[in-house]
Amino acid sequence: MKKVFLDSSALLAAVGSKSGASARILAHCRRKIIEGYISKYVLIELKRNLEKKFDEKHKQRFHGLLLKSNILVIEDVHHDLRIKYQDVISAKDTPILATAHFLKVDYLITHNTKDFMKQVVYERVFPTEIITPSKFVHIIEKRLAG
Fold this sequence. Notes:
Strand order of the largest sheet: 3-2-1-4-5
Strand content: 5-15%
Distance between the termini: 16 Å
Number of strands: 5
CATH superfamily: 5'-nuclease
Helix content: 55-70%
Structural class: alpha/beta
Number of domains: 1
CATH architecture: 3-Layer(aba) Sandwich
Largest sheet: 5 strands, parallel
Order of helices and strands: EHHEHHEHHEHHEH
């Protein structure tokens, strides 16, 4: 089973669209086709962004999605482990990158292509692949169909 770490941008997209790639990833997690992870840092970031961007109906949808999706919420890696990523990504993203790499997930799924999808970042977390939700869905659903 493939292991994925979702950042807040991927989860927020699932709140906004019931049929988009991010929502389909959560459905695959719910069916235990893939194993999904987020960290407490991502959860805090999610709650902050939900308050800013969504109404009460969407907030409730998010909580329902999270509960049903079988996503595991894990502790963030210690600050000492995050330091080795500070030279390749912004300080706000180091907890996400470090935790995903520490977990040895197959994929880090994000919409943040500007910060995460740089060659130096790819090299630092190899063999973890950094990918957008739509590209991941294409890969996983192609495997399921074949």
